[in-house]
Amino acid sequence: MKQILVASNNKGKIAEIKQILSGWQVFSLKDKGISVDVEETGTTFEENALIKAKAVYGITGMPCISDDSGLVVDALGGAPGVYSARYSGREHDDKANNALLLKNLSGVADRSAKFVSCVVFYDGKRTVVGRGEVKGRILPKEEGEGGFGYDPVFYCDELGKSFGLATAEEKNSVSHRSRALKDLVSKL
Fold it and tell me: Is 68 a residue of the active site?
C-alpha cells in the first residue's frame, strides 16, 4: 500500500483526504508526531500547496501531499480565495468567516461561487499537481451542521443542497478536493 503524509493540521481536510484516498495509507502530521504550521505566503492555491508540501518533505523526507483550497465568490472579486481560512482575521474560525461572508453579500443578487482545490504531491524529485472545483452559490444563511468551513453556506448545484446538509459520502462524490485528488492520482 502506498504511503503519503498530508502536510496539514486541518482535521476536517485530513479526514476527507483519508476517505477519498481509501487505497492509500494516509498519515497526518499528528500521526507522525510533527508539530509545524507552515506559513502560506503564496498568492495562488498552487503556490501555497507547494510551499507546505516542500516544507514538510524537508522535515520528514516522506512523500507529501498538500491541499490549498478555498471559496471563490464572483461578487467579491474572487474573495475570500486563498485567504478563506483567515477571511475574518481569525485563523480557522468557521463561524466568524461565514458571518463575515454573509454580511459582505447582504443585498447582493449574484451569489455564484465555487470551491477550488489544488493538491500538490512532492517527494523531493517530482512535483505533481491536481486541480478540482465545484460550482454553486452562497445561501442567505447557514443550512446544516455537517462538513467544516464554508460548507453550511455553500449550496452545491450538483447535490441540490448545501454541503452542510450533505453526508460525507455525498460531498466527497462531487467536492473540489475529491476532484483534485482524483486528478492528482491519475497523474501519479
Answer: yes
